Amino acid sequence: MKKSIGLLIVLSLMVSAGLFAGGQEEEKAPASPMDVEQVVLTDKAPSGDLELFSWWAGDEAPALEALIKVYESKYPNVNVINATVTGGSGVNAKAVLKTRMLGGDPPETFQVHAGQELIGTWVAANRMLDLTPLFEEEGWMDVFPKDLINLIGTDKGIWSVPVNIHRSNVLWYIPDNLKKWGVEAPKTWDDFFTVAETLKSKGVVPLAVAQTWTVNHLWESVALGVLGADDYDALWNGEISWTDPRVVKVWETFGKILSYTNTDAASLSWQQATDMVVIGDAAFNVMGDWAAGYLSTTLNIEPGSGYGWAPSPDTSGVFIFLADSFGCPKGTNNPDATLSWLKVCGSKEGSDTFNPLKGSISARTDSDLSLYNVYSQSAAKDFAKDRIVGSLAHGVVANEGFMNDFSTVMEMFLTSRNAQQAANACQAIAIQNGIGK
Amino acid sequence: MAHSKKLKNRSDMVKAILVLLPSVVLVAVFVYGFIFNTIYVSLTDWGQGAGLAEHPVKHWVGLGNYRQLFSGFIYGRFRQDLVNTFFYSVILLVGTLFLGFLLAVLLDRKIRHEGFYRTIFLYPMALSFIVTGTIWRWLLAPNGGLNLLPTFLGLKKGEFLWISSRKAILTFNWQHLLSILFFIAALVFLMLLLRAVRNRIHRKMVIHSALFSSSLLLCAISRWLLPPLLPFEEIHGFNLATLGILLAAIWQYSGYTMALYLAGLRGLPESIRESSRMDGAGEFTYYWKIAIPNIKPITLSAVIILSHISLKMFDLIYAMAGADNANTGHPSVNMYLTTFRANQFAMGAAIAVILFIMAALFVIPYLMHSHKQRREG
Amino acid sequence: MRLRHKLSKQRFFLYFFLVLGVLLFLVPMYMALITSLKDPAEINLARAWSLPKRLNWKSYIDAFDLLRPNFLNSVILSVTATLISALVGAVNGFVFSKNRFSGSELIFSFLLFGMFIPYQIILIPLFQVLRSIGLYGSLGGLILAHVIYGIPIVTLIFRNFYDQIPNSLVESARLDGCGFFSLLIRMFIPLSAPAFVVVGIWQFTQIWNEFLWGITLTRPEANPITVGLSKLAGGQAVSWNLPMAGSFIAGLPVLLIYIILGKYFIRGLLAGSVKG
Q1: Confidence band (pLDDT; 50, 70, 90) for A37?
Q2: For residue B323, what is the nearest residue in chain A, using CA coordinates?
Q3: How far is it, in rounded angstroms, from Cα C79 to Cα C242?
Q4: Which chains have 3+ CB pairs within 8 A of A?
């Protein structure tokens, strides 16, 4: 009898093994050559389902819903399925999207940070359609800034349509508090160190930070400040090595800055770091400009008089941007619907509907500024005249592999505070993840 | 004897096998099939750009991923995760078993409104990790929550960084891991040896002294003769930041052990308690000397369930400390990030395999024990 | 007199510790409750403990509106999957306890081992298999997944429970001509109410609270409540009152089950697990 049981187990194992052998044979087939496929333009009115994949929920949901309304009024025959995946600082969304794509069932379109987060993952895997014809047809080549198009495209094509622009290098503060403490917002990091000593003596935390990604976020502002825009770009192009003394200097400065931050960072959300500034426990906070939305809308503080902002130290005249964008994956059920959605995303109407609600600015240079609040108007002005560089923490300049490993290096640095070691580790992960290639 | 309980009727046996078949096939495919698939993936280089193509490119790399995990410069976080897992599992087990037993003893004593208390102690188990994670993050925030409690008594605010501390105790150098493990083994055998000497069991005295001396020898060899495990020094230890997570986990699951133990205590025949009273034993002696040994099977099944749960620490850590807090890291979080954020599918699979082996270390002794017991029973 | 005095002092300490325990266990609940009732602007760490200045019930109404479709999905999902997996457990447990054959112990270990598979890693193959058999996207696939990965634990619980039923009872029933199925259906399943309660509570809790599969294996219209909940808490800007209120609504059904069935839960455990 034992034999029959053994047989049973062996049999069922064979069944399961066979199941996977089938899958593996397919996987071993030679990868298709990297031929770029372009999006096919059509005037046909789309119909059917449009599954729209994003991580916008909670306070960000209204902006997306407004955009969908604009879309539905133009394309009433399309049934929009708003699939939101949230939680875990965006990792859940990535997990679901990857499962879907690898399972051969891509959604019609998905939200992704414009730049290397898309290029290093889905463009490298040859899973996206080149949108250049769409950009040309809609005249977007002229209304989107040149720097921006360079950063969201490669020499082979343009891969997504940005719906918004956020600025990463912003220093936030409460003017009344600064007055009370007798300090001013620092223009350079050297200024900051002087100011920080004064603040420290008054028992105020000079700079509030939160969990790791906000520390990465701070790092890119410091790197830009220490390196300058040219060297910052060169770092991502692979023209400067991570072990270069200039980059080691970034880590040294960064370590010094960290000594002026709160010790409980790892357990705070970014809002709680902003709260510290509002309550007066901390003086400054470097955060993306979604903080303006939190300060104005959630906490009801008046921009300008209630809270103030400046470019983070040593970065005035440079704009670190990040953008949410939508692309067109290959092999979806309804490419016409995707195309029409992308048109709405890039349109003036769509963008000026979405952005005032989202608290971001439009990627287009011709947007109607009267619709935006005081902060956004000033950001839009800067965006039009500043040098534009890409964000690391939000996926513009480095691929996902590097971003993930960079967080590990950052954790290492937060414990060891060893600049040279961090620089070496970064060099190792840059090679491993093919940065600058 | 054991055979007499087995089926003799042939048709019953066929029926028994037939009804089991769906479960066996499903588990074979969905559990073992996936495990073999994961093992296979872990031996390849599946990852990054081309790995996400419609027909992913994979190459066989043998044990390369495992070598990286245990000796690669940038995989120090994984090694700390392993150390964390050890402390997570042990402290979670001890904490929930102890607290659960304590609560069960309290409730076992003809309490009025017992149902009320029982529900309160059980309710945390009913909550989803999204809820508990968020609430505990607030409670453990250094400038709010628990740390503020002393101020209500006019004391100074607490300073402990519950889930963000970067301090570690019991630190050791990973290079010396082998010798440390052998040293601990030697200590264990020494204790067993001493017990054998006290009980005058000669056979055991011989075995344990042999084991003791050989592990001591291996300890010395691995410390001074073998090359170190890593080419560079790497310090690991018990991260204090894990205490916050453990607190929440123990809060969430000790209600379950309480229920188990309460059932166990109720299951003991009243006569045992009576006779222990007659012998003049106090309550403490009763629980310590009589109840605990008698409900050992419950402790065992609690251990099984809890080690299953300690795999699920993922949810709690993820929600409370966030994905990137290396101090509270756990291999399951690392695996999730490696797979879905860094796109290193093969490396993620390797971590999963290691995690699975660690879980197996818990369950195999249990299976052997229960197997033996049923054969005897 | 002295004895009674001593006893009452002991009772005092007993209740003292119990009440202390209750208070400690309720702390997180208190925190969630007051936060859910505050205005968004009033929520910050420094005032985390203080009562809301004004009760803001709106969070509950909003949260309920947003969660309603997910709530229904979760009810269908949890009830169906729990029932099926309890039945599977009863059948398997019956075989492993009262119909043992050579190799049955081996198969039992084979099944039990499945409990320890890390769920995060099998997402991709699970998705692929479910999609290839046409079960991706709907509640069906999710139910199947929960039933399969529940097999080990439900089998364990039912086997332990049936071990308590004396073999002699089974033997005499067999002598009376009871076959496999009539024994199972007429005798064992009716006897199993306590085990059904234990398995039911365990599986219902696990399934109701599961998130990762819920979000990966279903399309939006079939999303369970944990996915809805994460939408309340997700995004970059969060007002904490809404997710906290949502968590109360999401936790309510399970809490109710614990309150109603708590007594039977202990009885079920008592009946089933005294022998490991």
Answers
A1: confident
A2: A88
A3: 27
A4: B, C
Entry pTM: 0.89
Strands A78-84 and A48-54: parallel
Q: Judge contact between B341 and C107, C-beta under 8 A.
A: no
Structure-token pair, residue B278 = 């007659």
Among B3, B110, B120, the residue to mutate for chain C (most C Cβ within 10 A)? B120
C251 in reach of chain B (CB within 8 A): yes
- In the block, which residue shows the tokens 């599986």? C203
Tell me whether residues C99 and B12 touch, CB distance under 8 A. yes
Identify the CA nearest to B306 among candidates B131, B83, B80, B94.
B94
| Residue pLDDT tens, chain C, 276 long | 455 555 687 788 888 888 988 998 998 888 888 888 888 778 777 777 888 888 888 889 988 888 899 999 999 999 999 999 999 999 999 999 888 888 888 899 889 888 778 787 788 889 889 988 888 888 999 999 999 999 998 998 899 888 888 888 888 888 888 888 888 888 888 888 888 998 998 899 889 988 888 888 888 888 999 888 887 765 554 567 888 888 888 888 888 888 888 778 877 777 665 444
Chain B residues whose beta carbon lies within 8 Å of the beta carbon of residue C259: 119
Collapsed DSSP state (helix, strand, coil) of residue B168: strand
Nearest to C44 among A1, A86, A279 (CB): A279
Interface contact B48, partner A, CB < 8 A:
yes
Mean pLDDT of B120-131: 82
Transcribe A94-154 into DSSP letters.
HHHHHHHHHTT---SEEEEETTHHHIIIIITTT-B-B-HHHHHHTTHHHHS-HHHHHHHEE
In angstroms, rounded to a whole number, what is the distance separating the alpha carbons of residues A385 and A368?
Answer: 17
> Are C238 and A6 inside 8 Å of each other by CB?
no
Using the beta-carbon criterion (under 8 Å), do B130 and C31 form an inter-chain contact?
no
The pLDDT score that the predictor gives to residue B3 is 39
Averaged pLDDT score across all residues of chain B = 85
Sequence-separated (6 or more) residues with CB below 8 Å from residue B162:
A267, B140, B141, B142, B146, B147, B241, B243, B244, B247
Mean pLDDT lowest for which of A247-261, A339-353, C81-95, C148-162? C148-162
Taking CA atoms, what residue in B is nearest to C204? B126
Which residues in chain B are contacts of A414 at CB distance < 8 A?
Answer: 166
Distance set, CA B282 to CA A142, B285, C171 (Å)? 89, 5, 43
- Contact yes or no for B238/B168 (Cβ under 8 A): yes
Chains touching chain C through at least 3 C-beta pairs below 8 angstroms are: A, B
CB contact under 8 A, A17 and B57: no
Output phi, psi for A82, to 5 deg: -90, 95
- Residue B46 phi, psi dihedral angles, 5° rounding: -60, 120
Q: How many CB pairs under 8 A join A and C?
A: 113
Selected residues 224-263 of chain A with any CB under 8 Å from a CB in chain B: 263
Q: Which two tokens stand for residue C87?
A: 């039945």
User: Which residues of chain A are within 8 Å of residue B339 when distances are taken between CB atoms?
Assistant: 95
**CB proximity A38 to C under 8 Å:** no
List the end-to-end C-alpha distance of chain C, in Å, as a whole number.
Answer: 44
Interface contact flag, B15 C181, Cβ < 8 Å: yes
Q: Is A14 in CB contact (< 8 Å) with chain C?
A: no
Nearest-by-Cβ selection for A89 from B47, B54, B323:
B323
- Which tokens sit at B148? 């503020």
Judge contact between A196 and A207, C-beta under 8 A. yes
The length of chain B in residues reads 377
Record the tokens describing residue A57, joined without a space: 């929920």
Lowest-confidence region among A337-341, B98-102, B229-233, B353-357? B229-233
